[in-house]
Amino acid sequence: MKVDVLNMEGKKVKQVELPAAIFEAPINVDLMHQAYVRQMANARLGTHDTKLRGEVRGGGKKPWKQKGTGRARQGSTRAAQWVGGGRIFTPHPRKYTQRMPLKMRRAALRSALSVKAADASIVIVDELVLAEPKTKLMVKALNCLVGDSSALVVIPEKSASYDVVVRSTNNIPDAKVLMAGYLNIRDILGFDKVVLPLQALDTLKSALE
After folding, report:
1. Integer angstrom CA distances of residue 4 from 52, 151, 202
2. For 126, which DSSP code?
3. Which residues contact 123 (CB under 8 A, 6 or more apart)?
4. Per the structure, how many domains does the chain have?
């Protein structure tokens, strides 16, 4: 699959061949869904906690005698049916972590990138360099590259030049900068366009082919 390579002004400078193994892979919806559910589950802290009747304060004395009052028998004011009592069948700290083999995770990424490529949502840039860390410069560049669409900007690595890009994108609500090594299913599918500098494309080739 050949796509145009644009400059920062959105003008075509040349064409590049996208690797078919990454951008024309079989689209497996079930696998992408499994990878997405795993990522969202692993992001959960699992720190929710409620108190059982043995953990709430008070309730040591029997409210009234067992028989003769005409009322239902009660053993403690901290039972679940009492206001301020313990809770039953409520959440406690646990891990939501799910495991997924590396080959399956990579296949899900290839599938998601193939979906974007089929929709012409992969934007290749010859280089992504800003003179200074200013939001308006990044907004101008993204307007030329993707228009009004939301954009996931993938950078190859951390460096001084790309740090300027990161700082310039922080305040743009519909854009995000991500290192190629941290590319994930949620961000790929969560943005309209994926912006790839040529260096980032080379990094993806080495990681996913």
Report:
1. 62, 17, 16
2. S
3. 6, 145, 146, 151, 193, 194, 195, 196
4. 1
* Exposure class string for 130-155: b at 16+ Cβ within 10 A, else e: beeeeeebbeebbeebbeeeebbbbb
Per the structure, the complete domain to which residue 9 belongs is given by 2-27+100-208
Domain assignment present for 196: yes
- Is residue 89 domain-resident? no
Per-residue pLDDT band for 143 (boundaries 50, 70, 90) equals very high
Q: How confident is the model at residue 160 (pLDDT cuts 50, 70, 90)?
A: confident
| Model pTM score | 0.84
Residue 95 inside a domain? The answer is: no
What is the separation of C-alpha 12 from the centre of its chain, rounded to a whole number of angstroms?
A: 31
Dmax (CA) for the chain in angstroms is: 93
What CATH number is attached to the domain comprising 124? 3.40.1370.10
